[in-house]
Amino acid sequence: FRQCRMPRQWIDVFSGLLSLRWLLIGSAAAVYSQRRVYLASGITYESAFALPQGTGHPILAREGALGDQGALHLRHRQSRRAGQERWHCDRAAAAASLVAGLSIWCLRAGWQESRLRPRSRSSITVLAASAEEAEAGAAPASAKGGRSASAAKPGKRSNKQPFSLQPVRGTRDFYPEDLRQHRWLLGLWREVAANFGFSEYDAPVLENLELYLRKGGEEITEQLYNFTDKGDRPVSLRPEMTPSLARMVLQRARMLPFPLKWYSIPQCWRYEKPGKGRNREHYQWNMDIWGVPGVAAEAELLAAVTAFLSRVGLTAKDVKIRVNSRKIISEVMAKSKVPDDLFNSACVALDKFDKLTREQLVKELQTAGLSEEAVNLLLGQIEAASNASDPSDLEAVLGKDSEALSELSELFRLAEAYGYRDWLVPDLSVVRGLAYYTGIVFEAFDRKGEFRAITGGGRYDKLLETFGGENVPAAGFGFGDAVIVELLASKGLLPEDLGPKVDVVVFTLDEALYADAARIATAVRGSGCSAELLLGAKKKPMAGFKYAEKVNAPHTIMLAPAEWERGEVAIRTIATRTQEVVAEADVLSTLARLRDEM
C-alpha cells in the first residue's frame, strides 16, 4: 500500500473488504464442514427412529443382530458422535475465521503504524517542507550553483517530503558502543605517538580552497567538499592534513625548533564513492617529521606504524608494507623516455597500478601524454621488478650506481636494526597519487589483498615552495580508521570488553531517600571514583545489582529505609556477592579498602 501511496481512506475501505471477505470464507467453511458431518454420519438423532430395518445403511447393518433396543442404542450413539464431530468442526471453522479476520486487522494496523516508521533503513516519510516554502513556491536548486533561489524559512511542515533517518551518504553515526571502539583506536594511536616522542597539534576542518588546488592532475582535487561561504570566500573541508600542517609550519618557520615531530588525528572529508573500508569522512592518524633530510625520518615513521600494528595483534604475516622511491620512478621514467614535464601526471596514472587492468593502465598513461613506446618500456621495467624481495633485486633494472637505490637500501638496513624488516617489500608500482612526494613512498596492505591500503606516506621536501616559502625536508604518513577496523574485525582482533565502566552504582529503595543518595554519590565522585546514581527509587535491590553488572561496576551502595534509620548504607561487592553495612561516614574508607583488596 505504501509503495503505491494510496490515500488512507482507500486503505481503510480496502482492508475492511478484505476482512469481510475472510469472515465470509470462514463462515462458508463452517457451513461446508457441517454438511460434511451430516453426509459422513448419514443420520441425525431425530431421523434415526424413522429408518426401517434392512435399508442397507451402514449404521443399521447390524440391527438384526442387536435387536430393537440394541439398534436404537446404536442409532443414538452414532447420532451423538455426529453432533460432537459437527461441533468440533464448527469450532475449528470459527477459529479459522477469527484468525483470518484478526490477521487482516493486524496487517491494517501494522500498515498504519508503518506510516510512522521508515520503509527501510534509508528513508521515512515524516513531516518536511515548511508551509512558508510552499506558499512562496521555493525554487529547486539551480544546476549552476547548487543553491535554492531563496533561503529556507522555518515554519510548519507537511508530510509530503521524505526525510532520511540515515546519516549523509558516506558518513557515520557513532552510537555509544561504536564510539567506545573508536576512542579505543584513537587512544592507541595517541599512546604510540607519545611513546615515540611526538607532540599533538590540530587545525581547522575548514580551509581556504587554494590550499588544495595544486597542479599535477591529482585525484584528490576532484574529491573536495568545497563551496563559497557567505562572505564569498572559496573554502573546502580538509581532505587531508598535510597542507594544513605545511601552512602552520610556514607561518612560524623562523620560531619553530626543528626538527619537529608532530602528530594529529583529524577528521577528513573526500567526496569519493563509499565502499568497503572507504567513507567520505574518516579519521586519520598523521605523524610527520620536519627538518630531517635523510631516510632516518622514514625509518622512525615506519617503526611507529609497525609498533601500532603489533599492538593490535597483527604481524608481518598479516600485513606487508610496500616501499618505493619517487627518485627510483624518475630514473625508470628517464630510461623509458618519459618527458620530465609528464612525471607528475604519469605518477597519478601509475598510482592506479593495482586497480586497473594492463590495457586500462596503458590507456591511462597514454591519456597522460606518454607515447606507446614509453608506456611499454615503463610498464616492462616495473613488471620485471614485481617479484623483488630486497632492494638488491632491483639492480638489474636500475644499475648498481643508482643513487635512489642506495637510499632505499639504507632504509631497509635501518629497518633491520629497528626489527621490522620482515614487514617491508620493495615495489616499483608504489608511487602515491599526490604530487608533493619527492622521495621514499610507502603503502601498507593486508597480505591477502582483501582490503585497500591501510596506511601510506612518504617524503615531501618541496611542499613549502608551492606556498611561496623556503623548502624544509619533511616526511610523514596518514593512517585511516576505516580499513584497520575492517581488518581487525575480519581477524577477530577487536576488543569485546569496551563496555561502560563505573566504579560504584548508588541507588535507593525509597524515593524519600533520593536526596541522601545524591549526596553520597557526590562524595564518592569527589574522592576520585566514578559513581552512577540511578535516577529514581528501585523497588527491589536486584534491580540495582543487575545494573551494576551491566555497566561493569564492581560495587554498589544501597540506601534502604531500615538501615538508613540507623545512619547506615549497604555496600555490595558484585563479583563475590558479599555485602557490608557501614555508617555513612565510613563509606569512602570502605570503598578504598575494597578497591585495594581487588
Proportion of strand residues = 15-25%
Oligomer: single chain
Could you give a short account of the major beta sheet? 9 strands, mixed
Mean pLDDT across all residues, rounded? Answer: 80
Helix content: 40-55%
| Overall shape | globular
**Count of beta strands:** 21
Low-confidence stretches: 1-6, 37-66, 113-155
Structural class: alpha+beta
Q: Specify the number of helices.
A: 17
How far apart are the termini?
Answer: 60 Å
CA-based gyration radius: 39 Å
Characterization of the model:
This protein is of the alpha+beta class and 598 residues long. The protein contains 17 helices and 21 strands. A hairpin with a 4-residue loop joins β20 (568-573) and β21 (578-583). α1 (8-41) runs antiparallel to α2 (63-114), α4 (176-195) packs across α6 (296-311) and α6 (296-311) packs across α12 (403-418). The protein is globular and about 90 Å long. The model is unreliable at 1-6, 37-66 and 113-155 (pLDDT under 50).
SSE map:
Blueprint (H helix, E strand, L loop, with lengths): L7 H34 L21 H52 L9 E2 L2 E3 H6 L20 E2 L3 E2 L12 H20 L3 E2 L5 E3 L16 E4 L5 E4 L4 H10 L8 E5 L2 E3 L11 E10 L5 H16 L7 E7 H10 L7 H8 L7 H10 L4 H13 L10 H4 L4 H16 L5 E3 L13 E7 L8 E5 L14 E7 H10 L13 E5 L5 H13 L4 E3 L7 H10 L4 E5 L1 H5 L2 E6 L4 E6 L3 H11 L1
Parallel strand pairs: 5-9, 12-13, 17-18, 17-19
Antiparallel strand pairs: 1-4, 2-3, 6-8, 7-8, 9-11, 10-11, 11-16, 12-14, 14-15, 15-16, 19-20, 20-21
Helix pairs in contact: 1-2, 4-6, 6-12
